[in-house]
């Protein structure tokens, strides 16, 4: 995230805190924490997300632990679902409410990494006095959106610290680690849901979402990640009304569709070890049509 984008994001958040939420920055405020029955109910609804995220959170914590960061996963409403921290940080985590069940939505907590990330749906870093509330101005937080298998916002991946001082030199590396973690969680959710389909990529992504599409044997789109939907102008949710992808690509001249078709054919050929006839059957086109596509796209060896 660029410095200009970060400043705009935080200034917009401060404006909401002042105008929309009418929050007093000097008011002492304790973060709401759900009861155990409430947390079990919320966790039950997000069990698949939590299970997919835990191994990635453990890996991320090993990377950021030397800088005294705690790793947290929150749902779309700002409720912390899972936390990974070192034992020596437990008392501080309780004091600052870095714990499962704590609610970090922007409307009540003011400008903070989790809540503002969810409100803006983009990566956010909030350092010390960039927080709206004075009582949070010893905190440092960074968060990125996490998306589910049908392109919807599933929550936020966060690293926060109550002791970190100057993290700016390491900020690009920390943000890259966060983005990578969120992409891996999304990819795990996507492969779990569409593992029986052919999964292709539409290109690289530097966001917290990978550009993946799942196709059935007839070339129809069964699923797509958030990044792919934005790239192809597809809606969130289930994709039941889209035509088969390859005929659609034939009728378009946009460069993005050409790249998508190239990726589809590459994946099909790789699946059948370069056998054009088998790849044509897999894609639901004739052998002659596939040969023409290969020549037109410059894929001939």
TrEMBL record:
<dbReference type="Pfam" id="PF02954">
    <property type="entry name" value="HTH_8"/>
</dbReference>
<dbReference type="InterPro" id="IPR003018">
    <property type="entry name" value="GAF"/>
</dbReference>
<protein>
    <submittedName>
        <fullName>Transcriptional regulator</fullName>
    </submittedName>
</protein>
<feature type="domain" description="GAF">
    <location>
        <begin position="57"/>
        <end position="163"/>
    </location>
</feature>
<dbReference type="Pfam" id="PF01590">
    <property type="entry name" value="GAF"/>
</dbReference>
<dbReference type="InterPro" id="IPR009057">
    <property type="entry name" value="Homeodomain-like_sf"/>
</dbReference>
<dbReference type="GO" id="GO:0043565">
    <property type="term" value="F:sequence-specific DNA binding"/>
</dbReference>
<dbReference type="InterPro" id="IPR002197">
    <property type="entry name" value="HTH_Fis"/>
</dbReference>
<feature type="domain" description="DNA binding HTH">
    <location>
        <begin position="258"/>
        <end position="296"/>
    </location>
</feature>
<dbReference type="InterPro" id="IPR029016">
    <property type="entry name" value="GAF-like_dom_sf"/>
</dbReference>
